[in-house]
Give the backbone structure.
Amino acid sequence: MLTGLETALRRIGVDRYMMLLILTVTAGLVLPVSGDAALGLKRVIFWAIVLLFFLYGAKLPTRDILQGLTNWRLQLGILACTFGLFPLLGLALGPLAATMLPPAMGLGFLYIGCLPSTVQSSIAFTSVSGGNVAGAICAASISNLLAVGLTPALLALTIPQSSGHGVDLQTVWAISQQILLPFAAGQLARPWLSATLARHKGPVMVLDRGSILMIVYSAFSAGMVGGIWQRMTPGALGITLALCLALFGVVLAVTVWSGRAAGLPRGDVLALVYCGSTKSLATGLPMAGLIFADGDLSLIVLPLMIYHLMQLVLCSLISQRQAPSRSSSRA
């Protein structure tokens, strides 16, 4: 049974998972892991992510992807927002952020722009709002598969050479090993596993969220051990939140306006909003660990962490207001 505090937090879009994320960040700062224990945790995280994307592939109905592909206007619109509009906004915000924040955090905004959309969250918000769920499933899945190649390519084009971070074919292969190949293997194994996974959603969710929490703890522990948090101030966190809000607000406005201007039905506009404005922590954190040096990792992923928490809260509020029962009661 929910306590009064939990009920109040859920009304503003904050659930137990978000509270666990905040507690995990705190644990990484207060009780950081180091040495052999940190190396062991990284090995566990690698195989947890491999298993996670294998299960993603086994759960995802191929039929829904094929059905969603027929709605090409919606799919192109979402891809244009995810891998077109967002990288351009990241290019605009990155240098601005780097002037007010540690340089690695400016790089973090570039990184947000190059990431795919969320899978579970965007689909869930679309469903709650009464949107086109099949279109959202297709868009979120394609976005994350394309990200294996597109995210490193976009980073190679946008990251300044002076940053010391580069993306090469070896990095793309490492990402493919951890994300794309397990996903493909899961799709092949789907006929034998889909029914079992449907009956045991709880353990799959624990693995999903547990993997993210482990990555967050590892990244923030590394930052604490490396002493980089001495460069952070409450003012810097406030600036980061303001920039994330600005980024989300611009994308939200563009997705709503462009969907309506294109004459898309309400369900498609909702799918465009949620798939086009969200960024995946589940894909972004493993990729960041493969692309960026450990010393800067926690600062680079901090904007993504803040954006992720903020998008969950705001999209939760928006989806609740757009739910069919509420929409009909206001009509």
About this structure: The mean pLDDT is 80. The two ends are 34 Å apart (CA to CA).
